Amino acid sequence: MAEFASQAILAASRISKSFGEVPVLFSVDFDVRAGEVHALIGENGAGKSTLIKILSGLEAPTSGTIILDGAPVRLPPHGEAEAMGIVVIHQELNLAEHLTVAESIFLGREWTRFGFLRRGDMQNEAQRILDSLDVAIDTNRRINTLSVADKQMVEIAKAISREARVLIMDEPTAVLTPAETKTFFEQVRRLKAKGVAIVFISHKLDEVMTLSDRITVLRDGQLIATVETGDLTPDAIAEMMVGRELSNLYPPKHEPDVDAPLVLEVDGLVALGVRGVSFALRQGEILGFAGLIGSGRTAVMEAIVGLSDVHAGQIRVRGKPVRFSGIGEAIDAGLVYMTKDRKGKGLLLNIGLQPNLTLLTIKRHIRHGFLNEASEVEAMERATRRFDIRARDASVKVGQLSGGNQQKLMLGKAMETDPDIVIIDEPTRGIDVGTKQQIYHIIAALAKEGKSIIVVSSEMQEVIGLSHRVVVMREGRRTGTLEGAEITEGEIMRYAAGLKGEEDDVHRASA
Amino acid sequence: MSTAQAHEGVKPAKKRFRIDYHTFGPFVALVALCILGFALNPAFASEGNIANLLTRSAFIGIIAVGATFVITAGGIDLSVGSMAAVISGVMIIVMNTMIGTTGTGVATVLVGCLASVALGLLAGFVNGFMTTKGKIEAFIVTLGTMGIFRSLVTYLADGGTLSLAFDIRDAYRPVYYGNLFGVPIPVVVFGLVAIAGWIVLNRTAFGRYCMAIGSNETVARYSAIKVDRVRTLTYVIQGLCVSVATIIYVPRLGSASSSTGVLWELEAIAAVIIGGTMLKGGYGRIGGTVIGAIMLTTIGNILNLTDIISNYLNGAVQGVIIIAAVWLQRGNLGRINIFRKAGS
Predict the structure, then answer these.
(1) Which residues form the ABC transporter domain (chain A) (predicted)?
(2) Could you confirm whether domain B46-343 is CATH 1.10.3470?
(3) Is B9 close to A390, i.e. CB distance below 8 A?
């Protein structure tokens, strides 16, 4: 490794980036050397993905320079930077499912002779690359028949065939099992030994510690530090990733009564992506769900409200066992779920506000079998006042509203059902700070009214600022439940990253 | 963003003063077409011609009302023409065989109509069930049933023509040739079907569900809508519309053969699209569909009345009109998009 040392192939100097008026990166410096693994870490929304996009040319920086081999360059957009040796492996793998392994490896730069494909040559070359990686994958197999780990390997083979000098990997291990991760690491080390510069994004601190040579921490778009991995403990890194003060963004917490009844109890819930989760929700309580992306929080909520199948476990609403077969039944029982995917699952973007607001509760606006428009208009006015929804008029297409107004509209839609239990998945994703504050106050007010609320959020600040108690999940399991003074970013991060886990929870999960 | 947030609060949509371009556009086109027709041959505006034109557009129109539901909910039904043919055939067979028991009067005709409705509902349900529960694309399911229905009618007619017994024709004739206060019966039925369709699509929860599903199926599912049930029902409504259209079609010729209802599915879909409903679903306009159906018949009618363009080019002119109508709608949408970019 020494032979490549201190020779930055790709560097970013004083890079800033704003989307519209929202700044996401502030004068960040970053560089990666030949033959090193440089880990990039930070909370969700810290600006890691944006930095990667800039490093690979998918986004242009607002200011600052990219330096390739010591000379400033302007990277071409649309992934053409691959030709310059900068290859990105995205978190959601970019492989055409119906092509064969060999076809995938050469996709977009096929070898041809007189306009015809040199199938045999490409096959042999693909085989040679896979052999050099020491993986046994048949080059004739179709991508959709491969395991996720094998697909990952094909992506790496593809990167090698493009003679990648810089390989950027966005959470490559998120979908791998521990055994697969181990094989994957071997490949990464092999590439490293060949002098490839590797940028590695991961939320798993233990992996970062094992694999990386240097670590760069981003927080809120700012460069916090770039350090040699050996100099730090995982705890110190967790501190660096978080370590902010709570602002007055959040309303004061009103603790629910100690003897408030349990409105929702979940026992040993098993579903797709959920491996035995138990928790209870008290009346008037705000229960936070923290964890990394893909830790199974959304899966838990969707299983509870009947959007996905429950394989095992018990759910009780006010003491009564329930098993909802669809969201309609959950609503009848006083449970409402607000999806985090506002645009894909929550709202109809191509129609106006009013039909969106009443879509869940349209039956309440029916008189003698027909829609009563006056009553719908009234509901719209009510929701507008209550949630401060702003639009020119109710016929404006929802897709044209700002994220904040969309979120408020979704809140209105959910609250139209008059629920006792409100589950909100990512309440403030993609929303400006002003609206965030409004939504936090609405949530707190609802809890004060006696509604019981679950807030699933990847923004740790939010979970801490709102919740009375916090459940931390990791890999489909509950690893901890924090209360009162225990609710700190460092503590949540330790449970979320797997540095800490309740014995009790582990036992319960395996039982 | 700035325009959307310029004012405090949300005012109710001012429906009455807003012009619905998707319906209004086709209406303007139809009026223009009529003026053109009148200019080319004043006989176009004669009472007899108008009545004839509307009567002829009733079949496609009624079927297209059903198709509006299917398409609004994000589906497609290619089988309607063949379905109309097979229903006609079975109706004729049923009525011919019932002469012995129920005579040659209205009773037999009613039995035939009942058979028609039952078959329409059943065929629609089969299409819907296979699409939703079988999880096969609507295009494929109805392409399959299209072939099945078409060959069934050929088989039933033994390759020839099924003819309604002459004894029954007198009792059944008024359904096509009769009139109510001077309005031909098919036009009355077309009007009633269209009004019923408009009410169901715009004034019931079901109609709202259709639009929601066509707009985004996942949002619909997350909004407690029973997507499969609603989808299936749209095909059942389509089947019912086909059977109603068949009931008024059979007395016209009193026969059914393998060439009955050929290409009706395409005309029905064209009427729906000309009317401003989006083929990808989520937005349905019954009024537009009615205008679309009338427009398609008007084109043929005008070509019949003049000799500027050969009548043999009817299909070509229709094709041009369909493409032009959709192009104009897209242009409209494009303008809205540009406007949005400028506004934010």
Answers:
(1) 10-245, 258-500
(2) yes
(3) yes
